[in-house]
Amino acid sequence: MSPDDPMLPVAYRVEKVTKETRDTFTLVTRRVDRAPRHAFEPGQFSMLYVCAVGELPISISGDTADKQNLTYTVRSVGQVTNQLVSLGVGDTLGVRGPFGVPWPVEEARGKDVVVVAGGIGLAPLRPVLYHILRRREEYGRLVLLYGARSPQDQLFRKELTQWSQAPESRVLTTVDYGGVNWHGHVGVVTTMFRYVRLRPERTIAMVCGPEIMMRFVARELETRGVERSQIRVSMERNMKCGCGFCGHCQYGPDFICKDGPVFSYDRIQSRMEAYEI
Amino acid sequence: MPRFFRLDEPALDGLIEALRQQGYTAVGPRVRDGAVIYDEISSVADLPQGWASEQEAGKYRLNRDPSAGPFDYVIGPSSWKQWLHPPEARLFAAERENGAFRILPNTTSAPRYALVGVRACELAAIAIQDRVLLGDRYTDPIYQARRKALFVVAVNCTRSAATCFCASMQTGPRAVEGFDLALTPVGNGRQYLGETGTDAGAAVAGELGWPEAPPEMMSEAAETVRAAARAQTRNVALEGLAEALTAAAEHPRWETVAKRCMACGNCTLACPTCFCTTVEDTSTVDGARAERWRKWDSCFTQSFSYIHGGSVRTSVKSRYRQWLTHKLAYWQQQFGTPGCVGCGRCITWCPAGIDLTEEARALRA
Ligand SMILES: Cc1cc2nc3c(=O)[nH]c(=O)nc-3n(C[C@H](O)[C@H](O)[C@H](O)COP(=O)(O)OP(=O)(O)OC[C@H]3O[C@@H](n4cnc5c(N)ncnc54)[C@H](O)[C@@H]3O)c2cc1C
Ligand code: SF4
Ligand code: SF4
Ligand code: FES
User: Fold this and answer.
1) How far is B20 from chain A (nearest CA, A)?
2) What is this structure's pTM?
3) For residue A123, how far is its CA from the centre of ligand 1 (angstroms)?
């Protein structure tokens, strides 16, 4: 056995489970062998292994400043994610990685940052928000546009309020279906742009959500004068390895696991407009 | 120390025996179920002497040919990736108790293979898999261990099948690097010109005391291999191909070929460079022990591109496009080489007789 076998998981213990919504849970995990946790950057993902069940790519949703834990927010949609969210405190899961190209938090220094998230897409972006808010003065304006299916499907509700109270920061949320008690915005996330005034020449955007949402958001940002190279999106494809071996995540000439998942929109724009690539 | 030697059939037997003595498992061509495949061999008698293959798009036939020497066959459906990047490999085993589990170390040591009869196109294919599995950001330890322990006896081709196009891919038919020893059949395929490629190869040659090759043997060998190149009827024009294919994503030809393609995945299994894999989890009935296995996969399956909500590539058209564009275009961008070595297997073993060289040409039109 090679110590640097990228296909070999390391055991982490579940320390805490938080129910975010009816189908989404946040797992705080810590290395079983008490060695330092894997280093990661905002936007990177792990391959999480549930013993005898399977393995999945899941983004790290925790704070890089938390030196003890790796935190994941998982939406239960199928076989393996169902098992993941039903893990309890004390259970073990396997962690490989972290893998992938992170969000451009360094490049964004001094710029206005527009974060656009749809659904579970807020999870991989949360480390960016932690990062920026901890160094608030090093960045320009911060805008978070967040769309969820319904008010009950909003993630991190308490934090959304906290973030909106940070200096020079705006948080705008929208839902697809509001229900009678909802007084907020209803509509797709692209409709929120009319409430914010962008300074396109000094703006960098980070977008994560369903592919169709990212396509529309990217077009909208472009219409508002943000350059393609300043728009970053996080792509999703089937992944069986995370490290360039299995071939499943190929997206044209790129491997999403190692050349992404975060891509500059100018690199993949034509692919995003094409069908079944 | 000379680099070129003369070998006769007993000397070839001596080579196989010497490699086995050194602890290698010798693997070479054999006839099985009407085709030449690769499996363990113990002597020259195991080789496909007296057999010649007839190949065309969608057709393979092995015929009796008394004039054929042990290496006059042209490659069949199996490739060496079966030995280096095995169809099934255990990634790890784990023991489980009360919600906790422990990963058990993989203790089995890598097999030591001596591959006998590796063609030039196949050496190129191994070099390509090296780039994918060793030469990029991460290293696959299963492949690496087998690769490191490898001894390669290449054999230059003296015949081409109608499906061969290595000459146009610049990978053959003469082996120039990546071997410990290379042999060229001469004199009706019953004698060999031996060439050393590494110190390990030279050591074996020295130990076996092969005589130095006479100059006329070298010119005869060179001419036979050149003749095999000249006999090739198919070709792919590499110049500008990657750019042309990348730009051809919406070409109507994809629809035409998709009507013939059955998405069976034979081409990806037979292809010596295709590396894609999936994983499978198994466990004992009581759940106390689990294993994770890696298995060959194919981009022709619908599940290959499955993400929650459905597969990305549902149409056969999009899957054929992925395959061909990966082979001839994306691969170039990913690994600095085409993903095709011109071995022709995908042409021969396609049940619909789809010909990659013909598709590549049509897509540029
Ligand atoms: C880079 C990346 C980061 C992700 N981050 C998160 C996150 O932070 N939180 C979260 O909830 N989800 C995330 N996902 C999506 C998550 O991996 C899928 O929802 C999950 O794989 C679904 O698996 P399942 O077995 O529960 O579903 P099923 O629909 O039963 O899927 C069956 C199998 O298909 C494969 N598969 C299905 N969907 C995907 C997919 N999207 N990507 C890769 N393989 C898939 C898996 O092998 C899975 O086991 C991420 C995906 C990627 C590519
Ligand atoms: S694509 Fe076809 S001809 Fe090319 S290496 Fe693969 S099997 Fe051989
Ligand atoms: S052609 Fe298909 S199976 Fe072969 S390496 Fe490319 S994606 Fe994998
Ligand atoms: S996930 Fe396996 S190659 Fe990218």
Assistant:
1) 26
2) 0.95
3) 13
pLDDT digits (tens, 9 = 90+) for B254-311: 999 999 999 999 999 999 999 999 999 999 988 899 999 999 999 999 999 999 989 9
CA of B331 to the centre of ligand 3 (A): 10
Domain encompassing residue A151: 112-234
Residues A33 and A62 both lie in one domain? yes
pLDDT level of residue A2 (50, 70, 90 thresholds): very low
Q: Give the amino acid at A232.
A: R
Do residue B100 and residue A8 have CB atoms under 8 angstroms apart? no
- Say if the Cβ atoms of B305 and A248 lie within 8 Å: yes
Domain check: are B209 and B289 in the same one? no
Q: Per-residue pLDDT tens for A146-187? A: 999 999 999 999 999 999 999 999 999 999 998 888 889 999
The total number of structural domains in chain B stands at 2
Q: What is the mean pLDDT of residues A7-29?
A: 96
Element (H, E) at B226: helix B215-230
pLDDT of residue B136: 78
Residue A266 CA from chain centroid, whole number: 20
Structural domain including B291 reads 241-364
Distance of residue B323 Cα from the nearest chain A Cα, in angstroms: 11
Q: Is the per-residue pLDDT at A68 higher than 80?
A: yes
User: Tens digits of per-residue pLDDT, B80-110?
Assistant: 999 999 999 999 999 988 778 888 877 778 8
CA dihedral (B135, B137, B139, B140) positive or negative: negative
Q: Answer with the residue of higher pLDDT: B365 or A29.
A: A29
A60 lines ligand 1 (CB under 6 A): no
Same domain, A166 and A198: yes
Residue B236 lies in a domain: no
